[in-house]
Design goal:
By secondary structure, the protein is α/β, with parallel strands linked by helices. It has twelve helices and 19 strands. It has two domains: about 350 residues, Rossmann fold (3-Layer(aba) Sandwich); about 100 residues, 2-Layer Sandwich (GMP Synthetase, Chain A, domain 3). Helix 2 crosses helix 3, helix 8 packs parallel to helix 10 and helix 11 crosses helix 12.
Length: about 450
């Protein structure tokens, strides 16, 4: 199928469906997948029977609220039980053509299996996101993501299916990756936001000006929140002279499930594949679209391992209004992980808010580390930053400025701001950067 490269849509009919028609399709897929899960997955059969619900109860999209939640613990507890794929799986192993695994950052790594149909639809969605940010067949694309069991690794196939020239970079050392960027002059790259920023800094320090010596026009970032933080996105764009687009994915579902468009007002989520709910993180109460809570996803078309009401642990909101770009699929706005959020003086604090302040502040490198600790049985936080080598201000002056900026943005100031020299923090990484250290000993589960 040939496509008009001037058409902004990969699949115009799907991407611009009127809301009523989109939800009609979602309902048909929801009814089918819930029935399929009940009939083929030992876990869902048992869970639905114990809860007293059955597939026939799905008459409207809201009827999904009658069904029980699952989460990462459900995946870990059922993995390998009864079969290699476990009790959540709804197909035999011979129908599975690919598996990825989670990083295991919140526990035992969990598998995500795909049938051939699952995988092909996954890659068609990736092609849609690539096209959405402006990638075309005449682009050269570097996929600088981990290929080792990571669900984002195969996303490069979506770019190939689009027709772009693809360079499977993987997790190359920065010096080698810069060599690739300078030698092959690719126009698009995908990596993490922290690494995109650090790679630009390394390029400048090695005598390479990303704006003049390289040809990167678009940078895709994922895996961390930075791409949806205006200040971080601008910092990366300023170094590279390129447009930055944030993508969002889950190992539990597939690579990029949502992506920015040119409006950069949230990330369009593939609602033909995912039904989105938002719930109160404490009570599980259903919230209206636009309200902030934990995002809950139900897969509508993934058959290898359907996820019915999966609590993602991500805090955010969904906007179902039509975007200025013309697309009708909802846009998610992610604020952070439930695991990362902490409370100080009754204020919910997200690392993303702290990052926004640090990235905007002049005279510091943009690197930071957050430490959460206890004092007198209450939560406190400290922030460590790096001062630019040419900053004439004293460490105390810089600390006072950053403290005031954090208080103004978040509503509660840090217990301390520690100023270190440029390069003094061990936060630079070829992949995701660890920026939050929780030193608390009491149970602060939320």
């Amino acid at each position: 199928m040939s496509r008009d490269i001037n058409n902004k849509f990969w699949d115009e009919e799907l991407e611009t469906l009127p809301r009523e028609e989109l939800e009609k399709r979602q309902l048909a897929d929801l009814q089918e997948i819930v029935k399929f899960a009940y009939e083929n997955s030992p876990y869902y059969k048992r869970s639905f029977d114990e809860t007293g619900v059955k597939p026939e109860d799905i008459k409207t999209l809201k009827d999904i609220q009658k069904f029980p939640f699952i989460n990462k613990k459900t995946q870990r507890d059922t993995q390998g039980v009864g079969s290699f794929l476990g009790e959540l799986a709804a197909v035999p192993e011979e129908d599975v053509v690919f598996i990825s695994t989670s990083s295991g950052s919140t526990g035992v790594p969990t598998m995500s299996p795909f049938t051939k149909k699952d995988f092909d639809e996954f890659q068609d969605t990736e092609s849609r996101w690539f096209w959405q940010i402006g990638m075309r067949p005449n682009d050269r694309y570097v996929h600088a993501l981990n290929f080792s069991l990571y669900v984002g690794g195969p996303d490069v196939i979506g770019a190939q299916n689009l027709g772009a020239l693809c360079i499977w970079g993987g997790t190359l050392p920065s010096e080698r990756l810069l060599f690739v960027l300078k030698t092959y002059q690719p126009t698009v790259i995908w990596t993490s936001p922290s690494y995109a920023w650090q790679l630009g800094e390394k390029a400048l320090k090695s005598g390479i000006d990303p704006k003049k010596d390289l040809n990167i026009k678009k940078i895709i970032v994922a895996g961390e929140l930075g791409g949806s933080i205006d200040a971080t996105r601008k910092a990366i764009e300023d170094i590279w002279g390129a447009e930055v687009y944030d993508f969002y994915g889950l190992s539990d579902i597939f690579g990029a499930c949502a992506a920015m468009c040119e409006a950069k007002d949230g990330l369009h989520i593939a609602e033909n594949h995912i039904l989105v709910e938002t719930i109160d993180i404490h009570t599980g109460e259903i919230l209206e679209p636009g309200q902030v809570g934990e995002l809950v996803f139900t897969t509508l078309r993934k058959h290898a391992r359907p996820l019915i009401r999966f609590r993602t642990g991500d805090i955010g909101r969904i906007d179902n209004t039509k975007c200025s770009c013309g697309r009708t699929h909802g846009r998610i706005h992610i604020l952070g992980r439930k695991d990362d959020m902490f409370i100080v003086s009754a204020v919910n604090v997200f690392p993303s808010d702290i990052e926004a302040v640090i990235r905007e502040h002049n005279g510091i490198t943009g690197e930071y580390l957050i430490r959460i600790f206890e004092r007198d049985f209450t939560n406190k936080y400290a922030v460590e930053i790096e001062k630019n080598a040419d900053n004439p201000k004293s460490d105390d002056e810089v600390a006072a400025e950053v403290t005031a900026a954090l208080k103004a943005r978040i509503g509660v100031k840090p217990a301390r701001v520690v100023v270190r020299p440029d390069g003094g923090l061990d936060t630079r990484s070829e992949h995701k950067s660890r920026r939050v250290i929780d030193e608390r000993t009491l149970d602060y589960s939320i």
